[in-house]
Amino acid sequence: MHMIKKLKLKIYALSSYLLGHFLNADDDLWIIGAGNGYVFGDNSRYFYQWVIEKKNKKIFWVTKDLKIYHALSKNEKTKDRVIYFYSLKSILFIARAKVFICSHGVNDITPYVCKNRKLICLWHGLPIKKIGDLTLSSYGKDNPLERGIKHVINSKKEYDVFLSPSLYYKEIFEKSFEGKISEFIYAQYPRVTELKNKSNDIADNSDIKTILYAPTFRDFVAPSYYEINGIVPSKKLLSELNCILGYNRYKLIIKLHPYICIENSYMHELIGFNNIIFANKNDDVLDLLINASVLITDYSSICFDFLTLGKEIIFLMPDYDQYVGQTRGLNFELKDFAPGKIFTNWNDLIKYIPVINRKFTLDDDYLKALKMSNEFHTRKNSYIFDFIEKRAKL
User: Fold this and answer.
1) How far apart are CA 267 and CA 281, in angstroms?
2) Spatial strand order in the sheet of 184-186
3) How many CB atoms lie within 10 A of CB 144?
4) C-alpha triplet 190, 365, 218: angle, nearest 5°
5) Helix, strand, coil % (nearest 5) of the chain?
């Protein structure tokens, strides 16, 4: 079944690629996607929604997921701006489009793009952990067969434009994708723009506050790793944690990275703990960030989004030495940088819950991290749109 699915993908992708050589590119036709075609989220989503709302532009979301396709087809604003990848319409539109916009990579839309098209990457987060050429991890990289196909057909392999919200991260992206980025655009992430706009419209009057815990994934580990190494609170601690949360009028929402798998036995233990909630790991995290009073995370770039709200961030890193020693590694010494308190275990973190937010201030470390992650905060979606518009006509 897996091989049939891969074969189907290649047939549709190569069909649009080959047809693209016989059709003139339409400068006004933009195709956008995210998460290998199976996610409606991240910078791609919020830029797409902004363009539909503010601009008269032929922009179409392409997805390989029928659930996403049907959901967008039922929405009044997006019903005429969504395409199912496995369709004749998709082949034609991808063949004619001049601009391809992604958040993870070209596979968000189609693996094969003609050389004379424009490939724009909005990316999906500021990496604390190493990515691309800086890591030996296989995540986000084509396998040898796929690289061979792209080489033989000579499809596009470089980003014409890559979005970075700071000069600091521009250097990291350059090293991570050496020789694969032609030009950078410096602006605030569309996801962050949406986050800040929505948070300004929400009045937090609830007596019960939310703590959001959002850890990142670990490469090549078993599902049991996350409990054994204290990434999630152990079963023995759940009852104490639930009581302390309730006494201090907090609820804890745990939002796992989509790549994280937790054993069913652990999930079963959570039944009955009314102050601890597991969010759907495939849902967009934006609404959770907006409503959170405090963020707990580890090596995840989600901390940079939350920084822009000026709220407290706590770092839980029980496996720091193992994580740094893995093939992934970090782009910088997180312990020296972290704009918030660092804990190495849940026992100590639980003791801190009663005083969360009482002594929190925007100190120098917090403001330094904010600059390195969102230096160009005055440049927003309109700036990005105009930049892409000009490059599309070149």
Assistant:
1) 13
2) 82-84, 58-63, 26-32, 97-102, 118-121, 161-164, 184-186
3) 7
4) 65
5) 40, 15, 40
DSSP β-bridge partners for residue 212: 253, 295
Question: Which DSSP category does 280 fall into?
Answer: P
The answer to whether residues 92 and 15 touch, using CB atoms and an 8 Å cutoff, is no
- Whether 219 and 137 have beta carbons less than 8 Å apart is answered as yes
Q: Could you tell me the two tokens for 149?
A: 């196909």
Which structure tokens are listed for 53?
A: 């709302």
Q: Provide the greatest CA pair distance for the chain.
A: 67
Rg (CA), the chain: 22
| Beta-sheet pairing, 294-297 with 276-278 | unpaired
Of 39-53, 165-179, 255-269, 298-312, the range with the lowest mean pLDDT is 255-269
**What is the pLDDT, as a whole number, of residue 114?**
95
Burial class (CB in 10 A: 0-12, 13-18, 19+), 342: middle
Q: In a 10 Å sphere around its CB, with 0-12 CB exposed, 13-18 middle and 19+ buried, how is residue 137 labelled? A: middle
Phi–psi pair at 172, nearest 5 degrees: -65, -45
- The answer for residues whose C-beta is within 8 angstroms of residue 364's C-beta and 6 or more apart is none
165-191 confidence digits (pLDDT tens): 999 999 999 999 999 999 999 999 999
* Conformation bin of residue 270: beta by default, left when phi > 0, alpha when psi is -120 to 50: alpha
- Token duo for residue 41: 């989220």
CA distance 306 to 317: 18
How far lies 308's CA from each of 43, 191, 370, 376, 392, in Å? 15, 11, 7, 12, 31
Residue 104, pLDDT > 80, answer yes
